[in-house]
Amino acid sequence: MKIGVAADHGGFELKNTIKLFLELRGHEVTDFGAFELDSTDDYPDFVIPLSRAVAEKQVDRGIAICGSGVGASVAANKIAGIRAALIHDHFSAHQGVEDDDMNLICLGGRVTAFAAAEELVMAFLNARYIGAERHERRLKKIKELEIKNQ
Ligand code: RB5
Question: Which domains does the chain have, with CATH numbers?
Answer without folding.
Answer: 2-148 (3.40.1400.10)
